[in-house]
Amino acid sequence: MKLLLLLLITVGWFLLPFIPSVRELLRPTDTEPLRVVSRESSAISFFANNFRRYFLSQADQFDFSTIRDFEPATFPDGTPFVRVQGQGTFPLTNNPSESMVDYLVIAGEDTVFPEDTAFLREIYGVKSVKGARNSIYRAILAEEDLLVPEECIILRWAHAVHSFDVGENTRLHGRASAEKNLRLASGVLFEWIAAPVISIGHVEEVNDVKKDDSRLTPFEFKDMIKMTKGGDTYRSVGDLNIPNRSLVTGSLVIKGDLDIGEETVVRGNLKCDGKISIGDGCAVEGSIVTRSALHIGEKCAIKGPIISEEEVTVATGSVIGMDKGKTTISAPNVYLHNGVVIKGMVVAQREGKTV
Q1: Which of 20, 328, 352, 354 has the lowest CB atom count within 10 Å?
Q2: pLDDT at position 37, please?
Q3: What is the number of domains present in the chain?
């Protein structure tokens, strides 16, 4: 008897650490979508604002009447700079084999930047800035519009107070942001992009998308478990396939893969352990969270934030976010096709690319 009691105590002691996991499996409480918190998310112009404050503090202490355009000078703190306007010859470093400008550049309106040049310090655009192809820029702040043409590299950040256009096959390291519109051509690599409206390729004016669900078939949750917590939230153990043109009223927690048929409307959030495939013409009124890959079909409308632990692909013509509810896409890999619109921010920890 004592031996049996000792055995039971030993087994119980061994199983004790697994009790929370078993309880969560049987009665999950983790049904709410994750909240997206970005780095320094309080302002998309975080770095630009800091640079502007620095630049103005130095410029206020310098008498610009003492220098000509394209003439090198030094700020009170020792930073070398050059003021440029229109067309002229930028001062280069002493390395004859490479075209490099090692001056902070104050660019006036209609400044013509040279091609195939590396700018090793920041550029401050008094108004709009139009870069030159196949060039490298450390950082750019444009007080109006900004154009970074094809085959360029941004090393740290770039920000436009108005609109920001990025040419084909350009690499955007760090942050790229605008306070109105950010337009990216195909083949652009990015890490962190943000604007009220981000558009990929040629996109006409896009308003919030409204899907007509009056002719849809209500989805039946007959094989799913309704959660005791989380309101109209339903859980499925295993894969789930939702037929075309369905109306799903409630949130879903899926312990498997999720396949949503074309032209389906989901009035809730999606949370999935496996892959999620959303068919063409669908709408999701809440957030999407998955531990695997997410594919969003053509001409879809997703209102809430999107988080994937692997990959997010958004197909042509889809709209992510709303005018009054900016959102976020966050994943190691993010691929955005031509015609996609995002209202908010995209963070790609490993690779972001427009295709």
Answers
A1: 20
A2: 41
A3: 2
